[in-house]
Amino acid sequence: MAGQRTNYLTWDEYFISAVGLASLNSVQGDGGACIVDKDHRILSIGSNQVPYSLASKVPKERVLDYTLDSVSNALFSFKGKRSEFLNGTIYVSEFPTPEQAKSIAQAKLQKVVYFKDVPESEEKAITNYIFDRTCIYPEKYIDTGNSEEEYYCFLKDLRDFIKKHLKQKNGEVTPEEYYMSMAVLATLRSKDPSTQVGSCLVDENGRVVSVGYNGAPQGMEDRDIPWHSSGEKTGIKADIKDYYSVHAEVNSFDNYRGQQDDLSKMKIYLTFSPCQLCTPRISVGRPREIVWLREYEKIDFTEYEKWFGAAGTKYHSYNEDKPWNKANYNELVEEATRVIKKNIGKPGKMR
Q1: Would you put residue 103 in left (φ > 0), alpha (ψ -120 to 50) or beta?
Q2: Would you say the pTM of this structure is higher than 0.90?
Q3: How far apart are CA 182 and CA 336, in angstroms?
Q4: Per-residue pLDDT tens for 259-275?
């Protein structure tokens, strides 16, 4: 089918960008980790943070004393079954330590993709020995240049982009900016040439537990969808994309690997407000809050009161003082793509 967006992120670019955003969310250092299953679904994301289950119990002045590294946070706080790690990949900001390598091996992950390398040492040799004996394949994301400097430049450009478009406060990236940035990142995987939408699901402890974008159902290729949607003019239903595409918020619900009952404790960050078809589906999960960047023009807002009101779900715009139209939203998507492609773009076949 014709009309597919071509300047989307590759899987590797997408996952290492999630690591970058996680690094910006770290309270100490710039550690980030992203675990992906064999079907390219993000299972867990970790930052250098207090363990999520303890976040509300640790005094602010003691946060650094309780900080856990990003790899451990990604592995140990996963809400699904650990069997889903089997044959998956973990993307990390830095070559793992022996302690992290043991945990990665225990999880039965198959591959480690790391950005920053570390000098040769006894500890690096031990990590490589563990990986060799457990049949885990370590791969450097970019095998040229100074990886530490390149990663620093990538994080700086990411932070500048966030503060330019999603600013809530000056200074470091806030949790709200981090969550909405994850939703924006997800849009960059969408093949829809006219409307790219992203969703980020956050639990009651402030942990990102699922992301999604508008695309093909599991098992169907994006290229098989009529993204040109010419049927909207001709009346031929088979040529209308909405009959095939799964919307971002539904994808984030379906990608969530924890208990469905927990959805009532969660907050959803969306780049577009929900459409009329997705609103009832979302309300079934009874999330506590929905925040969106841009309002969907075709929605009748009485639908929100009907469904979300009954579910007890709060809903509102991310930044009431900055209304988003099609032009500045497209600029957001295009600039985010440029920032990532410039810093960590990888040549090769798009997937």
Answers
A1: alpha
A2: yes
A3: 11
A4: 888 888 999 999 999 98
